């Protein structure tokens, strides 16, 4: 399984290189990782105690943000490192003031992961929702660095719970503790002997509550909404949009819709509008 995993990572990287010839997001993914270790060396002072948060993209960042903000508020002496896998998160939050350092995460090859961990030398690590990188988890475990998974959610069809899932479940065993969103996830983990888990809910709700307390007026939205009932759809995927568009086109209701797609490029926006 380890060989298959390594091969899949290499194939993914090859796909990124090919996509970068015509895809801006793929180019950002590659360019953001150029001279990464040099920049890490220059930025990070190993004498500090560093709390490392890793998010795949922007949505996961928002889930981890309440935890980051709490640590910042209660332990100001600690330094926070925030990493992203995707440009969708990094490019928007690279200047996030709640973190001392913001970088891309190097791809999960053993040597690259070991080099990253050695430079950063984290005191504690938090992965958000569903980040499972074999070499990073293995190295952190070997170094006895506590690593936590927060706002995790599990389903029966995931690789961990297939008949061939034992190798993947070993990754879950590398976490010091897993904080899950719901009872189903907790029961599923316990059924497979993974008892280092507890129910903590979804930190997205904490973030939404924070945003609601700091609400700001958006003129264009207020003019659009006026006295109508409005449905707001945030971070939608194509499958979501297909359902929404079908309803909008067939419904006789006077509802208005504000749609914020996950992918906000001109061609995708045009496709939604034309549909």
Describe the structure.
- This protein is of the alpha/beta class and 275 residues long.
- Strands 3-2-1-4-5-6-7 form a seven-stranded parallel beta sheet, sandwiched between helices. A two-stranded parallel ribbon has the order 8-9.
- Helix 4 links the parallel strand 1 and strand 2.
- The protein is globular.
State the helical fraction.
Answer: 40-55%
Per DSSP, the total helix count is: 13
> Largest sheet, order of strands side by side?
3-2-1-4-5-6-7
So what's the overall shape? globular
At a glance:
By secondary structure, this protein is α/β, with parallel strands linked by helices.
List the helices and strands and how they pair.
Blueprint: H1 2-19, H2 24-31, H3 36-43, E1 50-55, H4 58-74, E2 79-84, H5 87-93, E3 101-104, H6 110-120, E4 124-128, H7 134-142, E5 147-152, H8 166-173, E6 177-180, H9 183-191, E7 197-199, H10 203-213, H11 219-225, E8 230-236, H12 238-250, E9 256-261, H13 266-274
Parallel strand pairs: 1-2, 1-4, 2-3, 4-5, 5-6, 6-7, 8-9
Task: List its salient traits.
two-stranded parallel sheet; 7-stranded parallel beta sheet; alpha/beta; 9 strands; 17% strand; globular; 275 residues
């Amino acid at each position: 399984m380890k060989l298959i995993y390594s091969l899949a990572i290499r194939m993914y990287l090859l796909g990124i290189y090919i996509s970068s010839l015509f895809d801006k997001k793929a180019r950002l993914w590659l360019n953001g990782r150029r001279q990464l270790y040099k920049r890490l060396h220059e930025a990070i002072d190993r004498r500090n105690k560093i709390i490392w948060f890793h998010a795949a993209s922007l949505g996961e960042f928002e889930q981890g943000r309440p935890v980051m903000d709490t640590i910042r508020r209660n332990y100001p002496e600690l330094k926070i490192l925030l990493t992203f896998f995707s440009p969708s998160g990094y490019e928007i939050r690279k200047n996030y003031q709640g973190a001392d350092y913001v970088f891309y995460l190097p791809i999960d090859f053993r040597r690259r992961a070991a080099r990253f961990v050695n430079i950063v030398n984290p005191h504690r690590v938090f992965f958000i929702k569903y980040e499972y990188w074999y070499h990073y988890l293995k190295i952190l475990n070997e170094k006895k660095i506590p690593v936590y998974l927060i706002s995790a959610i599990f389903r029966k069809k995931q690789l961990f719970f297939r008949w061939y899932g034992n190798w993947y479940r070993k990754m879950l065993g590398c976490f010091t503790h897993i904080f899950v969103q719901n009872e189903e996830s907790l029961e599923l983990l316990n059924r497979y002997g993974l008892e280092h888990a507890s129910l903590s809910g979804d930190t997205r709700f904490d973030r939404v509550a924070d945003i609601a307390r700091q609400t700001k007026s958006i003129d264009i939205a207020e003019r659009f909404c006026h006295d109508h009932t409005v449905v707001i759809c945030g971070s939608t995927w194509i499958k979501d949009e297909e359902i929404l568009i079908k309803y909008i086109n067939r419904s006789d209701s006077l509802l208005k819709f504000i749609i914020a797609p996950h992918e906000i490029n001109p061609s995708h926006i045009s496709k939604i509008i034309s549909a």
